[in-house]
Structure of 4-hydroxythreonine-4-phosphate dehydrogenase:
Amino acid sequence: MPLHSAPPSAALALSLGEPAGIGPDIALRAWVGRHTLHLPAFFVTGDADVLRRRAARLGLRVPVRPCAPEEAVRCFAEALPVVAAGPSATAEPGLPDATSGPAALAAIDAAVRLVQAGRAAAIVTNPIAKSVLYADGFTFPGHTEYLAHLAGSPARQPVMMIWSPELAVIPATIHIPVAEIARHFTRELLVDTGRIAARDLTERFGLARPRLAFCGLNPHAGEQGTIGREDEEITRPAVEALQREGIDARGPFPADTLFHARAREGYDVVIGAYHDQVLAPVKMLAFERAVNVTLGLPFVRTSPDHGTAFDIAGTGQADPSSLIEALRLARKLADADARRQATHNPARAEAEPRRAAAARRA
Ligand SMILES: NC(=O)C1=CN([C@@H]2O[C@H](COP(=O)(O)OP(=O)(O)OC[C@H]3O[C@@H](n4cnc5c(N)ncnc54)[C@H](O)[C@@H]3O)[C@@H](O)[C@H]2O)C=CC1
Ligand SMILES: NCC(=O)COP(=O)(O)O
């Protein structure tokens, strides 16, 4: 899939997220800390009034300024740039309402359109409440699958990685009921996931030969097939298939002994069978620093590792650290994509600013 890359001067697009969640709180607090934290410039896509109301409630003096994406870098020093998108949202903090879903979705759609047009360097998404969107008829499990759909990704399954300096993990199956995990846990899924992880960790994260550790589905990785056959019949053949392609895949390993400090020195990322098997360890180790990254997309997308935290929205207790790390990582990965594109295709890289200008005029 060709990469979308914006001129290095383009800002990051941050989607508003669920208007009743902590997305507005952490966006405002990140902007307040922009100078001391040396944050890359970003603009929010969504309803500017949500941010104005939240700033007033939190007692934050943040000038919220509607602008075009191209003005965001210049504007960022003195105001929080907002690119208007979608309908007004009326939800109070902690209380999503009927305007929540459409507003959250429009903010994501706008961010994607802008990155695809080369008008944003990458997208960072604030948390959405899945149940609120499902109630509104949203048919994708989460951002990960929705973004892959918008990007026209050919992958059988988009890849979610939660990355932190301490530990990086990928759940092979994502937001599905536990009762359905075994049915979705296939050799093809693991091989596809391993390939996408190996490619993005090499090309975007700069690891020469990423080491992928596969978790077993069963206790003790099945104990040679005596506690469930899946790890002998699915996980091991998937690891061997990846090894034949030259990918450094290892396992299956029992999940219970894969996350202690010495074990973590033996791999770059864990590919687990299901969501909680691998997200619980990384959130325990690095809740404030971990970042959700979607792998295999033609543009960069990161997100804080946490959710909408309705219990503390609008109270001033929301910690913006994970969003700050998500902004930093998005900038780093987008710059890596732009450098790679310039190396592999200098003519295209040179034409990119003209293409983006044409897209703006269109
Ligand atoms: N990327 C996304 O869009 C994500 C969305 N979600 C959604 O979030 C909603 C709530 O999910 P929960 O499981 O309750 O997880 P949550 O992460 O929203 O909250 C769990 C606990 O951590 C606290 N917390 C979370 N972020 C915090 C922060 N930045 N600073 C201080 N405390 C924080 C909350 O107050 C709560 O006590 C769900 O609807 C879920 O679908 C969950 C994870 C990621
Ligand atoms: N638990 C992670 C999560 O819910 C994030 O999902 P996504 O919206 O990034 O697909």
In short: The pocket of NAI (ligand 1) is lined by residues 22, 26, 127-131, 143, 292, 303, 306-309, 311-312, 317-319 (CB under 6 Å). Residues 321-344 form the longest helix (24 residues). The mean pLDDT is 93.
